[in-house]
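**Reference record**
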Amino acid sequence: RDFILGKEVADVDIATSATPQEIKRLFKRTVDVGIEHGTVVVIWGQDTYEVTTFRTESEYIDFRRPAEVTFVRSLIEDLKRRDFTMNSIAMNKKGHLIDPFHGRDAIQNKMIETVGSASERFHEDALRMMRAVRFVSQLSFSIETNTYQALIEHAPILEKIAVERKTTEFEKLLQGENRRTALKILIDTGLYQYLPGLREYKAPLQKMLELNLKPLSLIEMWTLLVYTAGLKQEECEAFLKLWKLPVKKIKAVKGILSWLQYRFQTKWTIES
């Protein structure tokens, strides 16, 4: 996706038709890190590479984990289990793209759409709903109609997802250039209700949409959220703990909030 967009490629996922045991026979130095899921670390010179076998996944449990993983020889079958078409593209060593689900077209059309049924993809891993909105923020793409409707229909299952996973996606959303549109989608689809502590704060979220959010850092975005929610110092800490933010980050937000409240409550003075 990033290669097609002309962006710097942050990481490369290496996939192969070779099984984990075959990978281990091919390379002298390997480490088992997630061999039950098909991933083996290959040590080559001074570098390490995660190599994962093509796989399919059976029925999901807890809306996030497959009950069983089956290794396959088919790249197409592996790509079929991905979340969005723009993320279901592979490239071989010659730079040729394998794109069975027209992900390149989706990227060129700036469209976020699931591979196959949106309902099925979101039931497999409910966090994919947050990923869809996060990509709106980061890439300034739109969400395809059926995918958008599935967000509305299946929003409640987001409650099943671990807080830490939701926080990671929400923070990426808050840092994206198109965060205002992404926040509006969280509100309009009802997804916000299933994020930590936000169910009662629709109005503050809507108020944030009226502000210029682009120059703000992540810490400042968290501060703006608790400020528009009208939270005091002790309430702020309790709210941020719901998101399981680290103590250092909570202290930083509380510090800015304290000075912000002081500034609004205290008149400016002139010193000679």
